[in-house]
Amino acid sequence: MTSSEYVTCFYCSEYAKIATDYPQNFAYHEKESFTPRCFLHWQYECSKCGKETHFNGIAWCSDCKVFTCLRCVEEKMVRKEFLIYDYYYNIPCHKCNSPNPALDFAEYDGQHPFQIGDLIPKEDVVIWMPIYKEELKSQEFPHRSWGSERILALGKAPKHTRLDSLDDYTPKSTWDKMAQFWISPEAEGEYHHTNLILPEVYRLLDTQKDEIILDVACGEGTVARYLAKHGAKVTGIDISKMIDRAMESEHEDKLGIQYLKMSAEELSNEFETAIFDKVICNMALMDIADYKTTIKNISHVLKEEGIFVFSITHPAFAWPATTSMRVPPDSQRNEDKRKIALDYFDERPTLLPFGWETPSLAFPRPISNYVNELVKNDLEIIEMSEPKASKEIVEKYPRQAYMDNDTLPDFLMIKTKKKSTN
Ligand SMILES: [Zn+2]
Ligand SMILES: [Zn+2]
Ligand SMILES: [Zn+2]
Asked: For labelling alongside 62, which of 15, 175, 252, 369 has CA 20 to 30 A away?
């Protein structure tokens, strides 16, 4: 064996980031993988079921001299920060039932069967003894890589912040700040809007001449202008400064669009019941805090059998429910990129930096929240859409679309019809 064939154990090298005296053992197992492992950090055979088990899922009982894996008994989770972890499993011995920590914590605690001499390793391995353990606790960690952070450290860490209060941010204030971007020429040809969102929204809306259409959160007016040019009578509402730009466009090129600076929550004060043929809310419901009132008001102003279409960032596959990770992080090839799920159920307001200065304020929520609100307000789902990048889009925008929008959706669109009471 040449020296180039020696690979250091993944766990030994991760532990050394916390415990600087940790010995670096050679890996003889899974040398080709991202996590090559030494004998100490490999697998141990359960004395009950006989199954080989990762060292983090099996415990040693030094009274009974047996291993018990977590498949054979009911383990408990113990939250404690040690080495690169923030918890370990306590696994009761299958013979005497006394709880023993899994071997990851046992080693940190100096109770690993190799440390206490109950067992002798069959392969060459240097055993660490935790003599400086007390110092470890108070040490300033050079590499906080605990829990999911350890995996996220392999790629691009998520940069979004979950907020516990809205003291410093409101949807209006963040959109006012972002207005500069969204009315810039850069946004005009924004890849997602141009290729995935707008064509699908227009198809679902299927605008006919003389239809009376409301555009909720119309922004700078792109959708409203498109609909007006196709013969619809359009009203656009928005709370942010972006509607100023929409009003300017109407001055420059009159299409008969009525713009009102107001929030969707105020809709039912401003309009009569059942006056619109169609309502569109493009890429905004996920940025609206009170989506329940918004949907209720939309149903209120919509005629019977009227159509309501909305598009949102995909609650399951886009930020902040997921993030992407690249190995290595700076790779430009998309086969090096994977999406990983973070927390689909976390509904706290979230700041999403899209790569320019001002973060956008989002209100993430599961798909079922939207669907249940539609049901409650007599809005019957007639079509759902999760736009997939076509071959043409993939060839034109390989870095955005290949092994990305052709494999997972970034957006979700729902078309509903208001039930008739007859
Ligand atoms: Zn190791
Ligand atoms: Zn077992
Ligand atoms: Zn025992």
From this structure: 15
User: Using 50, 70 and 90 to split pLDDT, how confident is the model at 265?
Assistant: confident
- State the CB neighbour count (10 A cutoff) for residue 123: 12
Q: Tell me: do 290 and 268 sit in the same domain.
A: yes
Cβ < 5 A residues, ion ligand 2: 46, 48-49, 69, 71-72
Domain match, 202 and 75 both: no
CA 243 – ligand 2 centroid, Å: 64
**57 C-alpha vs ligand 2 centroid, how far in Å?**
10
CA of 153 relative to ligand 2 center, distance in Å: 32
Last residue of a domain, one of 83, 118, 147: 147
Strand-pairing partners, residue 67, are: 60
User: How far is the first Cα of the chain from the last one, in angstroms, to the nearest whole number?
Assistant: 83
If phi > 0 it is left, if psi is from -120 to 50 it is alpha, else beta; for residue 65 that is left
Domain match, 136 and 213 both: no
pLDDT higher than 70, residue 55: yes
CB 399 within 8 A of CB 213: no
Q: Which ligand is nearest to the CA of 73?
A: 2
Please check the confidence at residue 246 and state whether its pLDDT lies above 90.
Answer: yes
pLDDT tens figures, 299-341: 999 999 999 999 999 999 998 898 888 877 778 888 888 888 8
CATH of the domain at 168: 3.40.50.150
Query: 246 and 335 in one domain?
Result: yes
* Pair 106, 191 in one domain: no
| Alpha-carbon gap, residue 68 to 31, rounded angstroms | 27
Distance 95 CA to ligand 2 centre (A): 12
Please give the tally of structural domains in the chain: 2
Distance 323 CA to ligand 1 centre (A): 29
Query: What is the domain range of residue 34?
Result: 3-147
